[in-house]
UniProtKB/TrEMBL annotation:
Organism: Tissierella creatinophila DSM 6911
Primary gene name: copA_1
Protein's cellular compartments: Cell membrane
Transmembrane segment boundaries: 162-180, 192-210, 222-244, 250-272, 405-425, 431-451, 743-760, 766-784
Molecular-function GO terms, alphabetical: ATP binding; ATP hydrolysis activity; copper ion binding; P-type divalent copper transporter activity; P-type monovalent copper transporter activity
Membrane topology: Multi-pass membrane protein
Name of the molecule in the record: Copper-exporting P-type ATPase
GO biological process, one term: copper ion homeostasis
Higher taxonomy: Bacteria, Bacillati, Bacillota, Tissierellia, Tissierellales
Amino acid sequence: MINSKIDIEINGMTCAACSARVEKALNKKEGVINAVVNLLGQKATIEYDSNIVGPSELVNLIEKTGYEVPLVKRTYLIEGMTCAACSTRVDKALNKKEEIQKANVNLSTNKAVVEFSSGVLTDKDIIAIIEKAGYKAEVEIDRDLDREKELREKEIKSLKNSFIVSAILTIPLFSAMFFHMAGINNILTNGWFQFALATPVQFIIGYRFYNGAYKALRGGGANMDVLIAMGTSAAYFYSIYNLFAGVHEYYFEASATIITLILLGKTFEAIAKGKTSEAIKKLMGLQPKTALIIRDGEEIEIDIDDLNIGDIVIVKPGEKVPVDGVIVEGTSSLDESMITGESIPIDKAIGDEVIGATINKFGAFKFRATNIGKDTVLSQIIKLVEDAQGSKAPVQRLADKISGIFVPVVVGIALVTFLIFFLVFKDFNEGLINAVAVLVIACPCALGLATPTAIMVGTGKGAENGILIKSGEHLERTHEMDTIIFDKTGTITKGEPEVTDILFFNGFEEDEILRIAASVEKASEHPLGQSIVKYGETKLEKIVAAKNFTAVPGKGLEADFEGKKVLIGNRKLMKDNSVDIEEKENTLAELETLGKTAMLIAIDGQLSGIIAVADTIKETSLKAIKELQEMNLTVYMITGDNERTAKAIADQVGITNILADVLPENKAEKVEALKKEGKHVGMVGDGINDAPALAAADVGFAIGTGTDVAMEAADITLMRGDLSGVVTAIRLSHRTMKTIRQNLFWAFFYNTIGIPFSALGFLNPMVAGAAMAFSSVSVVTNSLRLKKFR
């Protein structure tokens, strides 16, 4: 019997009966020695015999009982991965572990993001799995830019120094090859001299490859280091054999030159990889380190980490806003371009929200801190971009599969090449040299870097332009999209409607209809209702809130006001309440043809007034929709307005496909219907009622000026309120996917052309080594071209 003990967090327990039920279920389980469930701490402490029951079974039992064990998401920094075969092996080792729900290993960032049920595994367990696979790992607690920079610079410095020493020792060996070809004998062509120069390159400079190969083989796999160690060792030891046998055929220069060139390639690759995450570094560098606050009536400067919610912060002209908050004193204009991509400063006054890291251009103001630390807009953007950069796109699956079997296949090809030349053509030398060339030209690195580097640069570039893409998968789906649906209010239009007409009848006057409508709408949050309240505040002395207010989604609202039963809404609401509106149908039609939304007002069952409200089109909507149509996208507009009003708005922006009279709860159904027709559908919206449709679409775009709910449900968030961001996001997805395809083409091209050429003897091992070294560099450099995206 092996006694083990774990603590498992449990969500959803609300009373003692809940905790008792879980405790009872656990204690009944065979293998559980003792289980104690703490309701207050929301966790179970379980002693169990690990020979009989495992943590996964305990988690499943808790979930079967009706409660949830939360997932822990942790990031680990991995040291020692050199190629895609390495990252694939770590990925496989982690995902093989039953307790791990999901693991994603990224070669370009040298990180693993692992999700597992709380309490089931510890960081020590995860690190042990990674170390068993042959690599070092540590937990990434909070992203430390200085630490990352230090590690990257240390790696680059080590590679540079190794390359310089290797080059100094290799140049004489390389020169000797030309003297040997010319038939000139000197110290450089002397075998013992070459042996003296090649040995430190092979075993001191090349130790990193032997060490990497040993760890990979110990972990049950093979990687790029195995290929380099095998190839260079074959050339080196065969040269030693010839040296002792008195045969003047040496390949010391081949083994040393291969190592030198690969180190040069790795140096360039490390420098280039560092540039792929520059967008994150820029974002993280935006936040100021200190804040000027008022405490106990005094102005004091404190570290931003010591700031509390509710603190009053002073911002002077030219300074950055430290955290998110609401202005309580003063006015100013703020440059929010670093968050939204919008270059024009935004005017701010008392009551307006300010975003941390934005720049105060003119006036001084005071604001109350509302979000600090990880809750600020900037921190959430950084987290979103980090998650996206660490994600995989579906297009990477093929490369991952190939990487998993790549090295054994290459070793097999090299062995077959050697045997054919040795046994068939009776040429040991040629067989060995060609086998070495096959081993050193094969490059799993380029395959592993092709997708993640492009996604890192692409999502980073998006963030710079106020476009937040949740993952590589969404970037790929955006590229595949052929249909896009726009919500009308707040998306195509400004969402700030204004009252244009007030019609009155049934014995009521204009001011009376406005007073009743504004009073009833006072409790409403709908933009149309708010426009009536706003208009009423400018025309009336006082607006009193109505009683028994009830909103009827997609139809309107009802309330009691001064003893009268009041209904305000559309035709559906009037029909449901048997209000006769037939006489005014022509009037309604006229208003709707002009693109106005007519709100009918019934008092005590009689139609007594109509208030017409018009929403204006955003300046960029027409241009953006035209550009999308030029990109061969089918554009739809969806709205709760009737067909006539919807058509008037759609005509202004050139949309011919209209989905009108759609209730909020039915928007998602319309999206699903288009998907069933085989369309790849994108949905653009900004409100709470758009969230289900955003989630249902293949790609959901949330306008950042909208609600948090819409942004949470969306795959892409546009920090700016105009539609040009949709065009930019789609263009960026096309460019990124094009770059990924180019990268994969080059990665496959190097290997599919290089390996057979080497096997047939058309490539010298040194040329093969150079090609291999620079294949990764070309892939990363190609990804970096995305930084020029405009």
